[in-house]
Specification:
Strand order of the largest sheet of chain B: 1-2-3
Structural class of chain B: alpha/beta
Oligomer: heterodimer
Distance between the termini of chain B: 37 Å
CATH superfamily of the largest domain in chain A: Histidine kinase-like ATPase, C-terminal domain
Structural class of chain A: alpha+beta
CATH class of chain B: Alpha Beta
CATH architecture of chain B: 2-Layer Sandwich
Strand order of the largest sheet of chain A: 6-8-9-11-10
Number of domains of chain B: 1
């Protein structure tokens, strides 16, 4: 697949996403002009882009859709639910067509054609839509062009005059010329508007533009022609290969509508000809008709005359030249970079952090003031590089959320429910790799809420609730984590039923006293999926246990909170990034441990009198204390003075008792091997500047372990004194 | 000299040029010098650019002055791409990025 097509695929998918979002918006606000215009523009852009890469099937279908949209925009027809549904169907069909062009469609040509015919028939009800003039083509084996590898200074001269109707057809000359830039470097471009008629006759929707371009490129003529393939019939195109003869240029000048002299002058400016060559060429041509032909000297005179007319021109031109180099840098505002290159960069930054830490450690042990100073400057820069490179991978979560509009809408239709989706905090940013991985778990949670959480409108009304249910997706940052909430105002989890099922399955002891939270946690237990057990609706996709496992693989957690009759709140917490964290280094029993800095609230000293308690007093607040020495069975004597690091996670506070505090550091997370998968309380490992390995504590797990131990003691107090 | 300053925030695209043309020309007729503030123009396409060219040409033809005193990034980008900066003759701000 050639590059042009790849760009098209990527862009049309983006446009289709936009189209879908806008269509869903339109359903809620049918009178919104901006939305309508946006929809029209998206369809129009897809059509134009498809035309440019000769995807006739996509283009023609988009054309019919656009016609209906145009009538909609002109208020000839009204927005109805049926029409919106049809348009969504058309969006899906366009997606299939685009996928088919890429050769990745998962359906047969026959299916696509049948589907297309059905949609077109429906579109036909909304007025004359126009005929589809092309059918999808069967996927063909890709033939790739091997670029010819001529080196050296190669300037093609391209002369193009766009036809009057190109703008109306949705083809902007700018796009073609920008594509030209993908072939090589545009040395010089002159924009010609000479054929533009006087003001009164000028129709702003017609195109009067022409261009003389000097393109430095090593591609062949065919490649350049291909770019203009779609407007080929609409424009006058002449391509002169590098180092063409002067006569060829003169012929070109003759063939063009603009004034001969003006063109000649432009060619000189473009760099195709030198002034001497042109003068010589014109003189030889002019001899037979010397009387009519103006003198060649006029070229210069025209220039002078122009300078007189537009004195600002010269100054601007000079300023322009100095700006050229700067301009190149800002030409490309967006770059598409393969993800693996970014990953490689992040890896390197990780290594850089470790190496930087080693250097700074060395500087400190040598007590070399200058070295310390320069290494601290270095580590500050490394820190900035780290943040900047991690930033490169962050994306807004809104895109993922918006996908659910469609899901909610379709599911409501299937289930006969009425649910509105509310999204908050869509602009929250997080690592792209995490976004990709939470898509499926999130979708499962949303489906679950729709399926089992929110009741049917009649049931809701009977319960005195708004018949229209609300599903809320929230996202926000909290202490180095991203928090995503899926909230519904449905019936809530049925505590007794979950418990009964769990006892039946032998997951918990019938005698056990469980808190609400523990019971709700049971829905994540393998073998007790809500889909099959709680409401007997058809289960599908991954179970809740898989959701939790997926989240745990991302170092995230999920919590359930539910009130009968009021709804369920699922809270997901995920780290912002997977690669590097700011850590707080502590030492216990001569081993180093890293606590994620975002979790640390404060550090206090622990008096010896409290040594044997598993709680401590923080300014009147009693918090559980987790002693690392005990939890990990570390050898050695307890020091006389211990420290407590107060940590906070998901609203819970706890103290971690350690021997000694060793300061902040940047920790590059190295995952632990598969053998340690079941180890609780350890989230990963990192390498310190000294080369020593330090374990990264998993605060949420530690707090949980200590909580569980405490609850066991409450249940069986005789153990406490044992 | 009476200078008129007009700020346009619409999109200078094929969808709007039909309305913009009379608006631009009317503004041009109001005084000797028309200053266009295009800093609020988020989108511009070739049709919009063409319209600006028309206005500039019309200004020169009738002995008036048309100056674009503020460019949005989109306007600046297109004018530079089409290599019309010198022709328009308006100072452009080159951003540091």
């Amino acid at each position: 697949m050639d590059e042009l097509k790849q760009v098209f695929l990527q862009e049309s998918n983006e446009q289709l996403d936009a189209l879908e979002t806008l269509l869903l918006e339109l359903e809620n606000r049918p009178d919104d002009e901006t939305t309508l215009n946006g929809i029209f523009r998206a369809a129009h852009t897809i059509k134009g882009a498809a035309g440019m890469v000769e995807c006739a099937a996509v283009e023609s279908f988009a054309h019919v859709v656009e016609n209906v949209l145009d009538r909609l925009r002109n208020h000839e027809i009204a927005v109805t639910t049926e029409l919106a549904a049809l348009m969504l169907g058309c969006t899906d069909h366009l997606r299939v067509l685009v996928a088919n062009e890429a050769g990745v469609a998962q359906v047969t040509i026959e299916w696509i054609e049948a589907q297309g015919a059905r949609l077109l028939a429906e579109l036909g009800q909304y007025g004359p839509g126009g005929q589809v003039f092309a059918t999808p083509k069967a996927a063909e084996a890709g033939v790739e062009r091997i670029p010819s590898n001529r080196s050296g200074h190669n300037c093609w001269h391209i002369s193009v005059r766009f036809g009057p109707d190109v703008l109306r057809q949705g083809m902007d000359p700018e796009n073609f010329l920008r594509f030209l830039e993908t072939l090589g470097h545009i040395q010089h471009m002159e924009t010609l508007t000479d054929i533009m008629p006087p003001v009164a006759e000028m129709d702003p929707e017609l195109c009067y533009l022409g261009f003389e371009i000097s393109l430095e490129s090593s591609v062949d003529k065919q490649a350049i022609e291909d770019i203009f393939a779609f407007v080929r019939d609409e424009c006058r195109l002449a391509i002169l290969p590098p180092n063409s003869k002067v006569a060829d240029y003169l012929e070109l000048i003759e063939s063009l509508p603009e004034d001969t002299l003006r063109l000649g002058e432009i060619l000189v400016r473009v760099g195709a000809l030198t002034a001497d060559e042109l003068a010589e060429g014109l003189r030889t041509q002019a001899i037979p008709a010397a009387a009519e032909q103006p003198d060649v000297l006029q070229i210069g005179e025209i220039l002078v005359a122009q300078q007189v007319v537009q004195p600002e021109l010269v100054a601007a031109a000079v300023a322009k030249q100095t700006q050229v180099s700067e301009k190149k840098a800002q030409d490309a505002k967006l770059i598409r970079v393969p993800a693996d290159k970014l990953d490689h960069l992040i890896n390197l930054v990780g290594e850089l952090v470790i190496a930087g830490a080693a250097t700074s450690l060395l500087a400190h042990t040598r007590r070399d003031g200058e070295l310390i100073e320069s290494s601290s400057l270095l580590s500050r820069l490394v820190e900035e590089i780290r943040d900047a490179s991690l930033q490169l991978r962050t994306v807004q979560i809104g895109e993922t959320f918006n996908r659910f509009h469609r899901l909610v809408r379709d599911a409501c239709k299937d289930l006969g429910k009425d649910v509105q989706l509310v999204i908050n905090g869509g602009e929250t940013e997080l690592d792209k790799s995490i976004v990709e991985k939470i898509g499926d778990p999130l979708m499962h949670l949303v489906r679950n809420s729709l399926d089992h959480g929110i009741e049917l409108p009649a049931v809701r009304e009977a319960a005195g609730k708004n018949p229209r249910g609300t599903l809320t997706l929230n996202a926000c940052h909290d202490a180095g984590n991203i928090v995503i909430e899926v909230i519904d105002d449905g019936a809530g989890l049925n505590r007794d039923r979950i418990l009964a099922k769990a006892i039946e399955r032998g997951l918990v002891d019938a005698e056990a006293h469980l808190s609400d939270r523990e019971i709700f946690d049971l829905i994540f237990a393998p073998g007790l999926s809500t889909a099959e057990q709680v409401t007997n609706l058809s289960g599908r996709g991954v179970g809740m246990d898989v959701v939790r496992r997926n989240l745990q693989a991302l170092r995230g957690t999920i919590n359930v909170d539910s009130h009968s009759g009021q709804g369920t709140r699922l809270t997901l917490r995920l780290p912002l990034t997977l690669a590097i964290i700011d850590g707080f280094l502590v030492v216990s029993g001569n081993r180093s441990y890293v606590i994620p800095l975002d979790a640390v609230v404060e550090c206090i000293e622990r008096p010896e009198s409290e040594h044997n308690r598993n709680y401590f007093n923080l300014r009147g607040q009693v918090l559980p204390a987790v002693c690392l020495r005990e939890s990990f069975s570390l050898p050695g004597e307890r020091p006389a003075r211990e420290s407590v690091v107060v940590v906070q996670y998901a609203g819970q506070r706890a103290g971690i008792v350690v021997d000694r505090l060793a300061g902040e550091l940047q920790a590059v997370i190295k995952p632990l091997g598969a053998i340690f998968r079941h180890l609780q309380g350890i989230g990963g490992s990192t390498i310190l500047g000294s080369g020593e390995v330090a374990l990264i504590l998993d605060i949420s797990a530690l707090i949980k372990i200590s909580g569980q131990a405490e609850q066991r003691l409450i249940a069986r107090p005789e153990l406490r004194n044992a | 000299m009476n200078a008129i300053r007009r700020a346009f925030t619409e999109e200078f695209t094929i969808y709007r040029v039909a309305e913009l043309k009379p608006a631009l020309l009317a503004a041009l007729g109001e005084g000797e010098r028309l200053e266009l503030d295009l800093s609020g123009v988020e989108r511009i396409d070739s049709a919009g650019c063409q319209l600006l060219i028309l206005a500039k040409r019309e200004a020169s033809a009738t002995g008036k002055t048309l100056a674009i005193v503020a460019h949005s990034p989109a306007v600046q980008s297109l004018i530079e791409f089409y290599n019309l900066a010198a022709w328009f003759g308006d100072p452009l701000v080159v951003s540091a990025e």
